[in-house]
Design a protein that fits this description.
76 residues, GMP Synthetase, Chain A, domain 3, 3 helices, 26% strand, cell wall biogenesis/degradation, RNA-binding
Length: 76
Amino acid sequence: MRQLIETIVKPLVDFPEDVQVNVEEEADKVTYKLSVHKSDMGKVIGKQGRVAKAIRTVVYAAGSSQQKKIFVEITE
């Protein structure tokens, strides 16, 4: 899943080397924390959050076979 998020986000940003995905796994959920360069935040979030919503939709669909809830957070 980490590779999927990186594959989606890296072409969108100006600093692909700064893209990091950290995983926090708990008993009933998995949280993917996406970190990008400060100037790339707008590109990843998009107008009215459309790009972020699209990323979350793809990740949720890919992880639907897992028994855990999946969350994607975007941080600096």
